[in-house]
Amino acid sequence: MNLPESPIRNISDTARWVAIYRARETDRPDAVFRDPFARRLAGERGEQIATSIQFAEKNSWPFVARTWLIDRIITEQVRQAADMVINLAAGLDTRPYRMELPPSLQWIEVDLPEILAHKEEMLRNEKSVCALERVRLDLSNVSARRELFSELGRRAKRALVVAEGLLVYLTEEEVAALAQDLAAPAAFQHWIIDLASPALLRMLAKKMSAPLDQAGVPLKFAPQQGPDFFTQCGWKPQDIRSIIHAAAKLNRLSFFLRLIAKISSPQFQAMRPWSAVCLLAKL
């Protein structure tokens, strides 16, 4: 069967895709966050990718709710004395430019060279609100990431790790290994992730996985244990915030989905479509 060519060429294109949803939220008069750089970063290619994936076009609310939830948790953690934020697979995220953060906060972006070079070019005339550094690194390089984590651990007292939109592209073995590496530095105290249930992953596989599969970046990670998966790797779930319930609060759901949110539990259920932003704490 001949499938249309995937609009997504590689993993970095997913950052352009997601940036479009931040740009569209920013354009709303009732925006729950504003990212004035998102459309510039996403570019025409980001718009082309977004419009080609119809299921996501009709259901962009998870991207909005996820961004809003992570913004809130980062703000809370910084108020609780986090002195470093390590954003893994940072992509086209612009939180160091758009959020209210202390100038002394160390913000470390880690991602592939191509996407960080694009971001630097697009934002070359902008100034971050905190101490921003970019590290060009393929996180699948285990020895290099361990060396980086060790170095950053020596520089921080209370570091917060963020992995937004990353883990779903990894296998369970790869996630476990990354989690164990992050648990090693004593200063790495908290970790923000987003997580899907196996049922949701199966639904997404039917609705929108074709372009991702063709690009070699299939959706993989949705552990049967849910957030408890991480307890075997040195982390415990501390705060779990349902994405659909957040979207309902933000008035970003259709009438039908608002009804679903009302009758559904925010608790993890492997056999039902479920997603959440989770704050993990070091065991």
Describe this structure in words.
This protein is α/β, with parallel strands linked by helices. It has one domain (11-282): Vaccinia Virus protein VP39 (Rossmann fold, 3-Layer(aba) Sandwich), CATH 3.40.50. It contains 12 helices and 7 strands. A 7-stranded mixed sheet has the order 3-2-1-4-5-7-6. Helix 6 (113-122) links the parallel strand 2 (106-111) and strand 3 (131-136). The chain starts with 10 loop residues before the first helix and ends with a strand. 41% of the residues are buried. The mean pLDDT is 95.
Q: Please, what is the average pLDDT?
A: 95
Strand order of the largest sheet: 3-2-1-4-5-7-6
Q: Could you say what the CATH topology is called? A: Rossmann fold
Task: State the helical fraction.
Answer: 40-55%
- Backbone structural class: alpha/beta
Strand percentage lies at 15-25%
| End-to-end distance | 49 Å
Q: Look at the structure and name the CATH superfamily.
A: Vaccinia Virus protein VP39
**How many helix segments?**
12
Our count of domains comes out at 1
- CATH class call: Alpha Beta
Q: Low-confidence stretches at least 5 residues in length (pLDDT < 50)?
A: none
**Could you state the order of secondary-structure elements as H and E?**
HHHHEHEHEHEHEHHEHHE
Tell the overall outline.
globular
